[in-house]
Protein backbone atom coordinates (compact mmCIF):
# COMPACT_ATOMS: atom_id res chain seq x y z
CA UNK A 1 0.00 0.00 0.00
CA UNK A 2 1.53 3.22 -1.12
CA UNK A 3 2.07 5.78 1.58
CA UNK A 4 1.79 9.51 1.01
CA UNK A 5 5.14 11.34 1.10
CA UNK A 6 5.77 13.18 4.30
CA UNK A 7 5.02 16.91 4.25
CA UNK A 8 8.06 19.19 3.72
CA UNK A 9 9.73 20.37 6.82
CA UNK A 10 8.94 23.92 7.83
CA UNK A 11 11.92 26.25 7.81
CA UNK A 12 12.05 28.39 10.83
CA UNK A 13 12.92 32.07 10.55
CA UNK A 14 16.19 31.39 12.31
CA UNK A 15 17.19 28.89 9.61
CA UNK A 16 16.23 31.36 6.88
CA UNK A 17 18.44 33.95 8.52
CA UNK A 18 21.28 31.46 8.58
CA UNK A 19 20.81 30.65 4.91
CA UNK A 20 21.13 34.35 3.85
CA UNK A 21 24.69 35.67 3.22
CA UNK A 22 26.09 37.68 6.05
CA UNK A 23 26.25 41.48 5.43
CA UNK A 24 29.70 42.90 5.87
CA UNK A 25 29.94 46.49 7.06
CA UNK A 26 32.33 48.36 4.80
CA UNK A 27 34.07 51.74 5.02
CA UNK A 28 31.75 53.00 2.29
CA UNK A 29 28.69 52.04 4.38
CA UNK A 30 30.13 53.94 7.31
CA UNK A 31 30.68 57.00 5.17
CA UNK A 32 27.15 56.77 3.75
CA UNK A 33 25.33 56.41 7.04
CA UNK A 34 27.75 58.40 9.16
CA UNK A 35 29.24 57.24 12.40
CA UNK A 36 27.61 57.26 15.80
CA UNK A 37 24.19 56.97 14.32
CA UNK A 38 24.40 59.93 11.95
CA UNK A 39 22.51 59.11 8.77
CA UNK A 40 23.18 60.43 5.28
CA UNK A 41 21.69 63.75 6.28
CA UNK A 42 23.10 63.78 9.79
CA UNK A 43 25.43 66.35 11.20
CA UNK A 44 27.89 64.01 12.83
CA UNK A 45 31.24 65.58 13.51
CA UNK A 46 33.28 62.40 13.68
CA UNK A 47 36.22 61.57 11.43
CA UNK A 48 33.98 59.70 9.01
CA UNK A 49 31.84 62.79 8.40
CA UNK A 50 34.58 65.12 7.19
CA UNK A 51 36.37 62.32 5.36
CA UNK A 52 33.20 61.65 3.44
CA UNK A 53 32.96 65.36 2.61
CA UNK A 54 36.55 65.45 1.36
CA UNK A 55 35.98 62.34 -0.78
CA UNK A 56 32.83 63.91 -2.19
CA UNK A 57 34.69 67.08 -3.17
CA UNK A 58 37.52 65.08 -4.73
CA UNK A 59 35.03 62.98 -6.65
CA UNK A 60 33.25 66.05 -8.00
CA UNK A 61 36.50 67.80 -8.87
CA UNK A 62 37.91 64.73 -10.61
CA UNK A 63 35.03 64.54 -13.02
CA UNK A 64 36.03 65.75 -16.50
CA UNK A 65 33.15 68.24 -16.79
CA UNK A 66 34.40 71.13 -14.58
CA UNK A 67 37.84 71.02 -16.18
CA UNK A 68 36.55 70.96 -19.73
CA UNK A 69 34.12 73.83 -19.27
CA UNK A 70 35.07 77.44 -20.01
CA UNK A 71 38.26 77.06 -22.10
CA UNK A 72 37.87 80.61 -23.44
CA UNK A 73 37.62 82.01 -19.92
CA UNK A 74 40.72 80.08 -18.87
CA UNK A 75 42.63 81.36 -21.91
CA UNK A 76 41.58 84.96 -21.20
CA UNK A 77 42.67 84.61 -17.58
CA UNK A 78 46.11 83.36 -18.61
CA UNK A 79 46.42 86.11 -21.24
CA UNK A 80 45.54 88.75 -18.65
CA UNK A 81 48.17 87.43 -16.27
CA UNK A 82 50.83 87.31 -18.98
CA UNK A 83 50.10 90.89 -20.08
CA UNK A 84 50.52 92.20 -16.53
CA UNK A 85 53.55 90.01 -15.90
CA UNK A 86 55.33 90.99 -19.12
CA UNK A 87 54.09 94.56 -19.60
CA UNK A 88 57.66 95.83 -19.92
CA UNK A 89 58.14 93.61 -22.97
CA UNK A 90 55.16 95.02 -24.90
CA UNK A 91 56.73 97.11 -27.69
CA UNK A 92 56.01 100.78 -28.30
CA UNK A 93 56.52 100.53 -32.03
CA UNK A 94 52.79 100.41 -32.75
CA UNK A 95 50.90 103.31 -31.25
CA UNK A 96 52.95 103.33 -28.01
CA UNK A 97 51.00 100.26 -26.94
CA UNK A 98 53.48 99.44 -24.19
CA UNK A 99 53.21 102.87 -22.56
CA UNK A 100 49.42 102.84 -22.84
CA UNK A 101 49.29 99.43 -21.14
CA UNK A 102 51.54 100.62 -18.32
CA UNK A 103 49.46 103.77 -17.86
CA UNK A 104 46.28 101.74 -17.37
CA UNK A 105 47.96 98.80 -15.62
CA UNK A 106 46.24 99.18 -12.21
CA UNK A 107 42.83 98.91 -13.87
CA UNK A 108 43.65 95.51 -15.36
CA UNK A 109 42.84 94.08 -11.95
CA UNK A 110 39.14 94.76 -12.56
CA UNK A 111 39.10 91.96 -15.12
CA UNK A 112 39.88 89.39 -12.42
CA UNK A 113 36.48 89.53 -10.62
CA UNK A 114 34.71 89.79 -13.99
CA UNK A 115 36.36 86.61 -15.24
CA UNK A 116 35.82 84.94 -11.86
CA UNK A 117 32.09 85.62 -12.08
CA UNK A 118 32.07 84.04 -15.54
CA UNK A 119 34.05 81.04 -14.32
CA UNK A 120 31.65 80.43 -11.44
CA UNK A 121 28.64 80.81 -13.72
CA UNK A 122 30.13 78.27 -16.14
CA UNK A 123 31.32 76.10 -13.23
CA UNK A 124 34.74 76.02 -14.86
CA UNK A 125 37.44 74.69 -12.54
CA UNK A 126 40.14 75.35 -15.14
CA UNK A 127 39.21 79.04 -15.41
CA UNK A 128 39.21 79.46 -11.62
CA UNK A 129 42.69 77.95 -11.38
CA UNK A 130 43.94 80.04 -14.33
CA UNK A 131 42.77 83.23 -12.56
CA UNK A 132 45.35 82.64 -9.84
CA UNK A 133 48.02 83.96 -12.23
CA UNK A 134 46.59 87.48 -12.85
CA UNK A 135 45.46 87.77 -9.22
CA UNK A 136 48.93 87.02 -7.86
CA UNK A 137 50.66 89.26 -10.43
CA UNK A 138 48.34 92.20 -9.71
CA UNK A 139 48.83 91.87 -5.96
CA UNK A 140 52.58 91.72 -6.46
CA UNK A 141 52.51 94.91 -8.56
CA UNK A 142 49.99 96.98 -6.62
CA UNK A 143 49.11 95.22 -3.39
CA UNK A 144 51.51 97.45 -1.49
CA UNK A 145 49.47 100.52 -2.47
CA UNK A 146 46.28 99.27 -0.86
CA UNK A 147 47.31 99.95 2.72
CA UNK A 148 48.03 103.22 4.50
CA UNK A 149 51.80 103.78 4.66
CA UNK A 150 51.69 107.29 6.12
CA UNK A 151 53.44 108.28 9.33
CA UNK A 152 52.82 111.25 11.65
CA UNK A 153 55.16 114.19 11.70
CA UNK A 154 57.32 115.79 9.05
CA UNK A 155 59.22 119.04 8.56
CA UNK A 156 57.89 120.40 5.27
CA UNK A 157 54.55 120.21 3.48
CA UNK A 158 54.59 120.49 -0.31
CA UNK A 159 51.69 120.61 -2.76
CA UNK A 160 51.23 120.71 -6.52
CA UNK A 161 48.24 121.58 -8.66
CA UNK A 162 47.50 121.97 -12.35
CA UNK A 163 45.07 124.84 -11.93
CA UNK A 164 43.80 124.53 -15.54
CA UNK A 165 43.77 127.31 -18.10
CA UNK A 166 39.97 127.01 -18.21
CA UNK A 167 39.49 127.33 -14.44
CA UNK A 168 36.34 129.45 -13.92
CA UNK A 169 37.38 130.53 -10.42
CA UNK A 170 41.17 130.97 -10.10
CA UNK A 171 40.81 133.21 -7.04
CA UNK A 172 38.75 130.57 -5.23
CA UNK A 173 41.27 127.91 -6.22
CA UNK A 174 44.08 130.02 -4.79
CA UNK A 175 42.24 130.46 -1.48
CA UNK A 176 41.59 126.72 -1.23
CA UNK A 177 45.25 125.94 -1.84
CA UNK A 178 46.44 128.50 0.70
CA UNK A 179 44.14 126.89 3.28
CA UNK A 180 45.96 123.56 2.78
CA UNK A 181 48.85 124.89 4.85
CA UNK A 182 51.51 123.82 2.35
CA UNK A 183 54.95 125.40 2.83
CA UNK A 184 55.72 125.02 -0.88
CA UNK A 185 52.98 125.29 -3.49
CA UNK A 186 53.63 124.58 -7.17
CA UNK A 187 51.12 125.64 -9.81
CA UNK A 188 51.00 124.59 -13.44
CA UNK A 189 49.04 125.92 -16.41
CA UNK A 190 48.94 129.52 -15.17
CA UNK A 191 47.53 131.85 -17.81
CA UNK A 192 48.57 135.47 -18.22
CA UNK A 193 45.04 136.54 -17.24
CA UNK A 194 44.93 134.42 -14.07
CA UNK A 195 48.48 135.16 -12.89
CA UNK A 196 47.59 138.44 -11.07
CA UNK A 197 44.73 136.69 -9.29
CA UNK A 198 46.97 133.92 -7.98
CA UNK A 199 49.61 136.41 -6.90
CA UNK A 200 47.08 138.54 -5.03
CA UNK A 201 45.29 135.69 -3.26
CA UNK A 202 48.48 133.86 -2.28
CA UNK A 203 50.55 136.87 -1.26
CA UNK A 204 49.56 136.81 2.42
CA UNK A 205 50.36 133.11 2.98
CA UNK A 206 53.44 133.02 0.75
CA UNK A 207 55.88 135.92 0.92
CA UNK A 208 58.12 134.39 -1.74
CA UNK A 209 57.13 133.26 -5.22
CA UNK A 210 58.38 132.94 -8.76
CA UNK A 211 56.49 132.47 -12.02
CA UNK A 212 58.24 131.60 -15.27
CA UNK A 213 55.87 131.16 -18.17
CA UNK A 214 52.99 128.92 -17.17
CA UNK A 215 54.54 127.38 -14.03
CA UNK A 216 55.24 128.92 -10.64
CA UNK A 217 56.26 128.19 -7.06
CA UNK A 218 54.89 129.94 -3.96
CA UNK A 219 56.95 129.51 -0.80
CA UNK A 220 57.01 130.40 2.89
CA UNK A 221 60.79 130.13 2.70
CA UNK A 222 63.24 132.23 0.67
CA UNK A 223 63.96 131.31 -2.94
CA UNK A 224 67.15 131.80 -4.94
CA UNK A 225 68.89 130.71 -8.13
CA UNK A 226 65.62 130.46 -10.06
CA UNK A 227 65.91 129.66 -13.74
CA UNK A 228 63.76 128.22 -16.55
CA UNK A 229 64.33 124.64 -17.58
CA UNK A 230 64.18 123.70 -21.25
CA UNK A 231 62.04 120.57 -21.63
CA UNK A 232 62.06 120.84 -25.44
CA UNK A 233 58.50 121.95 -26.02
CA UNK A 234 59.86 123.77 -29.10
CA UNK A 235 61.47 120.99 -31.04
CA UNK A 236 63.26 121.15 -34.35
CA UNK A 237 64.51 123.95 -36.61
CA UNK A 238 61.47 126.18 -36.02
CA UNK A 239 61.94 126.12 -32.27
CA UNK A 240 65.62 126.95 -32.60
CA UNK A 241 64.76 130.18 -34.39
CA UNK A 242 62.66 131.56 -31.52
CA UNK A 243 64.41 133.96 -29.14
CA UNK A 244 64.65 133.12 -25.46
CA UNK A 245 62.26 135.89 -24.37
CA UNK A 246 59.56 134.45 -26.64
CA UNK A 247 60.05 130.94 -25.33
CA UNK A 248 59.89 132.20 -21.74
CA UNK A 249 56.27 133.33 -22.18
CA UNK A 250 55.13 129.73 -22.44
CA UNK A 251 57.93 128.09 -20.45
CA UNK A 252 56.68 124.94 -18.68
CA UNK A 253 59.46 124.04 -16.23
CA UNK A 254 61.71 125.75 -13.69
CA UNK A 255 64.34 124.99 -11.11
CA UNK A 256 64.88 126.97 -7.92
CA UNK A 257 66.56 126.64 -4.52
CA UNK A 258 64.59 126.83 -1.27
CA UNK A 259 66.48 127.92 1.85
CA UNK A 260 65.51 125.64 4.75
CA UNK A 261 66.91 125.41 8.28
CA UNK A 262 68.49 122.12 7.21
CA UNK A 263 70.23 123.54 4.17
CA UNK A 264 69.33 124.10 0.51
CA UNK A 265 66.55 122.16 -1.19
CA UNK A 266 66.46 121.99 -4.99
CA UNK A 267 62.87 122.22 -6.24
CA UNK A 268 61.75 121.50 -9.80
CA UNK A 269 58.32 122.45 -11.11
CA UNK A 270 57.32 120.93 -14.45
CA UNK A 271 54.37 120.56 -16.75
CA UNK A 272 55.27 118.07 -19.46
CA UNK A 273 53.60 117.85 -22.85
CA UNK A 274 50.19 116.29 -23.17
CA UNK A 275 49.43 112.68 -24.02
CA UNK A 276 46.62 111.92 -26.46
CA UNK A 277 44.79 108.79 -27.55
CA UNK A 278 43.42 108.81 -31.10
CA UNK A 279 42.68 106.15 -33.73
CA UNK A 280 45.39 107.26 -36.14
CA UNK A 281 48.38 107.79 -33.85
CA UNK A 282 47.35 105.53 -30.98
CA UNK A 283 48.82 106.73 -27.69
CA UNK A 284 50.61 109.91 -28.80
CA UNK A 285 53.26 111.03 -26.30
CA UNK A 286 56.03 112.54 -28.43
CA UNK A 287 56.33 115.94 -26.72
CA UNK A 288 55.82 114.44 -23.27
CA UNK A 289 58.53 111.85 -23.79
CA UNK A 290 61.01 114.48 -25.02
CA UNK A 291 60.27 116.53 -21.92
CA UNK A 292 60.71 113.50 -19.66
CA UNK A 293 64.12 112.81 -21.18
CA UNK A 294 65.21 116.43 -20.77
CA UNK A 295 63.96 116.49 -17.19
CA UNK A 296 65.74 113.24 -16.44
CA UNK A 297 68.99 114.68 -17.81
CA UNK A 298 68.62 117.79 -15.64
CA UNK A 299 68.05 115.64 -12.54
CA UNK A 300 71.09 113.54 -13.38
CA UNK A 301 73.19 116.70 -13.45
CA UNK A 302 71.70 118.11 -10.23
CA UNK A 303 74.38 118.51 -7.53
CA UNK A 304 72.17 119.15 -4.52
CA UNK A 305 71.51 116.05 -2.45
CA UNK A 306 67.97 117.08 -1.54
CA UNK A 307 65.62 117.35 -4.52
CA UNK A 308 61.83 117.65 -4.89
CA UNK A 309 60.02 117.49 -8.23
CA UNK A 310 56.47 118.85 -8.31
CA UNK A 311 54.22 118.95 -11.32
CA UNK A 312 51.86 117.57 -13.90
CA UNK A 313 53.94 115.01 -15.78
CA UNK A 314 51.03 113.75 -17.89
CA UNK A 315 51.88 110.16 -17.14
CA UNK A 316 52.05 107.52 -14.43
CA UNK A 317 55.32 106.42 -12.93
CA UNK A 318 54.73 102.90 -14.24
CA UNK A 319 55.26 104.22 -17.77
CA UNK A 320 58.70 103.33 -19.14
CA UNK A 321 59.00 106.86 -20.60
CA UNK A 322 59.83 108.11 -17.08
CA UNK A 323 62.63 105.65 -16.35
CA UNK A 324 65.22 108.46 -16.43
CA UNK A 325 63.28 110.23 -13.66
CA UNK A 326 62.24 107.27 -11.52
CA UNK A 327 65.81 105.98 -11.54
CA UNK A 328 66.80 109.08 -9.53
CA UNK A 329 63.66 110.04 -7.60
CA UNK A 330 60.99 108.10 -5.75
CA UNK A 331 57.27 108.76 -5.55
CA UNK A 332 55.97 110.17 -2.26
CA UNK A 333 52.64 108.44 -2.92
CA UNK A 334 54.23 105.02 -3.33
CA UNK A 335 56.38 105.43 -0.23
CA UNK A 336 53.96 107.09 2.18
CA UNK A 337 50.53 107.32 0.57
CA UNK A 338 47.22 105.56 1.02
CA UNK A 339 45.82 103.97 -2.12
CA UNK A 340 46.66 104.95 -5.67
CA UNK A 341 46.25 108.71 -5.22
CA UNK A 342 44.55 109.20 -8.60
CA UNK A 343 44.42 112.88 -9.59
CA UNK A 344 42.86 113.08 -13.06
CA UNK A 345 40.19 113.70 -14.21
CA UNK A 346 38.83 115.45 -11.14
CA UNK A 347 35.24 114.33 -11.79
CA UNK A 348 36.24 110.64 -11.76
CA UNK A 349 39.97 110.19 -11.08
CA UNK A 350 41.43 107.26 -13.02
CA UNK A 351 45.20 107.91 -13.15
CA UNK A 352 47.83 109.72 -11.13
CA UNK A 353 49.58 112.08 -13.52
CA UNK A 354 50.26 114.82 -10.92
CA UNK A 355 53.40 113.83 -9.09
CA UNK A 356 55.54 114.57 -6.05
CA UNK A 357 58.94 112.89 -6.43
CA UNK A 358 61.84 113.24 -4.00
CA UNK A 359 65.48 112.47 -3.34
CA UNK A 360 67.42 113.00 -0.13
CA UNK A 361 64.30 113.62 1.96
CA UNK A 362 61.85 111.15 3.48
CA UNK A 363 58.13 111.18 2.61
CA UNK A 364 56.08 110.78 5.77
CA UNK A 365 52.61 111.05 4.21
CA UNK A 366 51.03 111.73 0.83
CA UNK A 367 47.43 112.54 -0.06
CA UNK A 368 45.06 114.12 -2.58
CA UNK A 369 43.44 117.46 -1.76
CA UNK A 370 39.77 118.30 -2.45
CA UNK A 371 38.69 119.37 -5.92
CA UNK A 372 38.92 122.98 -7.08
CA UNK A 373 37.74 124.59 -10.31
CA UNK A 374 40.37 122.60 -12.23
CA UNK A 375 40.03 119.29 -14.06
CA UNK A 376 42.95 118.01 -11.92
CA UNK A 377 43.01 117.30 -8.19
CA UNK A 378 45.79 118.89 -6.10
CA UNK A 379 48.31 116.52 -4.52
CA UNK A 380 50.30 117.05 -1.31
CA UNK A 381 52.97 115.37 0.78
CA UNK A 382 54.68 115.83 4.13
CA UNK A 383 58.48 115.43 4.08
CA UNK A 384 61.14 115.08 6.75
CA UNK A 385 64.91 115.34 6.65
Entry keywords:
elongated, 20% strand, 385 residues, six-stranded mixed β-sheet
Account of the protein in words:
There is one protein chain. This protein is 36% helix and 20% strand. The termini are far apart. The model is unreliable at 11-22 and 24-43 (pLDDT under 50). It is an alpha+beta fold and 385 residues long.
- Multimeric state of these chains? single chain
Measured distance between first and last alpha carbons: 133 Å
Give, in spatial order, the strands making up the sheet with the most strands. 3-4-2-1-14-13
Radius of gyration: 35 Å
Can you summarize the main beta sheet? 6 strands, mixed
Share of helix among residues? 25-40%
Report the uncertain regions: 11-22, 24-43
Structural class by SSE content: alpha+beta
Mean pLDDT: 87
Q: Strand-and-helix sequence, N→C?
A: HHHHHHHHHEHEHEEEHHEEEEHEHEHEEE
Q: Please, how many helices?
A: 16
Which word captures the global form? elongated
- By DSSP, the count of extended strands is 14
- Estimate the strand proportion: 15-25%
